UniProtKB/TrEMBL annotation:
The keyword Hydrolase appears for this protein: yes
Biological-process GO terms, alphabetical: polyamine catabolic process
GO cellular component, one term: cytosol
Origin: domain of life: Bacteria
Listed name of the protein: Gamma-glutamyl-gamma-aminobutyrate hydrolase family protein
Length: 232
């Protein structure tokens, strides 16, 4: 049985259902600050960091950015909990897939910083549309990146629903994809060939309209393949 740890969030079921869809041998462990169950990660073969609240700017030494965050959308307890999960996952060489906030908290873990509000930094909005649906836009993948090999293509269509993004990239990491306006859409190891699986994306593959899109299917399959190797 393959065991994947999925971090708790308001849309937790979207992520857990996405990971197990199409497979009958995957067990999910909910990793939640309410349970303080960091140690349960030791039972897992992979870690999925989900989307959700803004990362508190104090964790990347920019407390002056707090006013750009949504006041009811900051959760320090969750931040601290997921930073602990990352510490354990990196130490144990667990495959890690980060989605939206998952990318952002991982970048912070590695010493990077965030843009707390994309429009305030002079970029077009990446938030959901007025009807509540995701907007879609093009993404350009670095053709020399590990991600490019996984996707087997250098551009495509992704969804978008966020207002924060990577600013300074964390130590040991590099940008592997950007939107046309320059917003960071994916980060990875600088030296992926000598590291455990780490894929961090800003978009939401778990809810994209086309689940056969390589920016969904290939990423999920790569993560599960790496996790299965860890389980052997």
């Amino acid at each position: 049985m393959l065991t994947i740890g999925v971090t708790d969030c308001s849309k937790y079921s979207n992520y857990s259902n996405w990971i197990i869809s199409g497979s009958d041998d995957i067990e999910i462990i909910k990793l939640s600050p309410a349970k303080a169950n960091v140690e349960d990660l030791k039972k897992c073969h992979g870690l999925l960091l989900t989307g959700g609240e803004d990362v508190n700017p104090k964790f990347y030494n920019k407390p002056e950015y707090s006013s750009y965050c949504y006041a009811d959308d900051v959760n320090e307890i969750r931040d601290e909990f997921e930073l602990q999960l990352l510490e354990l996952a990196i130490t144990d060489s667990l495959p890690i897939l980060g989605i939206c906030r998952g990318l952002q908290i991982a970048n912070v873990y590695f010493g990077g910083t965030l843009i707390p509000d994309i429009p305030s930094w002079g970029k077009p909005s990446h938030a959901k549309l007025q009807d509540g649906s995701d907007q879609y836009h093009q993404v350009q993948v670095d053709d020399s990146s590990w991600l490019s090999k996984v996707l087997n293509q250098q551009q495509g269509l992704i969804n978008s629903n966020h207002h924060q993004s990577v600013d300074r990239v964390g130590e040991l990491l590099k940008v592997s994809a950007r939107s046309p306006d320059g917003v960071v859409e994916a980060i990875e190891w600088k030296e992926p060939d000598v590291k455990s699986f780490l894929c961090m994306v800003q978009w939401h593959p778990e809810r994209m309209n086309d689940q056969n899109n390589p920016f969904v299917k290939n990423i999920k399959n790569a993560f599960l393949t790496a996790s299965r190797k860890k389980s052997v």
